[in-house]
User: Which sequence fits this backbone?
């Protein structure tokens, strides 16, 4: 009797899971170790505003090629790679994005502000 009950419970559980899975799968995108570098951020605590791009006249906070070559991290390129990853996630209709750590390389406030600004923009566009 006990074995029969256990098998019946297992079959019921499997059938329930199958019905749940057929409804709508929950998709979660994981972006780990993004090491975001806000190229268009600003330092609110000092006068440095970055280097001006001669074409766009926008100030940027690029790292030098020398500093990138001596590092194990990608800095300037990750800004655009991060945006491309978010665009891809949005295009796929994924509503939940997990960022399990290493949001920036150095934890500077301007990078965290820039990351928040971009995530807020994507959240608004998904609503």
Assistant:
């Amino acid at each position: 009797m006990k074995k029969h009950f256990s098998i019946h419970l297992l079959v019921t559980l499997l059938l329930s899971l199958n019905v749940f899975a057929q409804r709508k799968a929950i998709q979660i995108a994981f972006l780990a170790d993004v090491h975001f570098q806000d190229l268009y951020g600003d330092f609110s605590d000092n006068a440095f505003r970055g280097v001006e791009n001669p074409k766009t006249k926008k100030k940027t906070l690029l790292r030098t090629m020398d500093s990138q070559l001596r590092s194990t991290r990608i800095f300037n390129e990750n800004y655009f790679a991060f945006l491309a990853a978010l665009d891809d996630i949005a295009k796929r209709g994924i509503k939940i994005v997990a960022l399990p750590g290493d949001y920036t390389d150095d934890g500077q406030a301007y990078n965290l502000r820039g990351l928040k600004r971009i995530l807020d923009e994507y959240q608004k566009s998904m609503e």
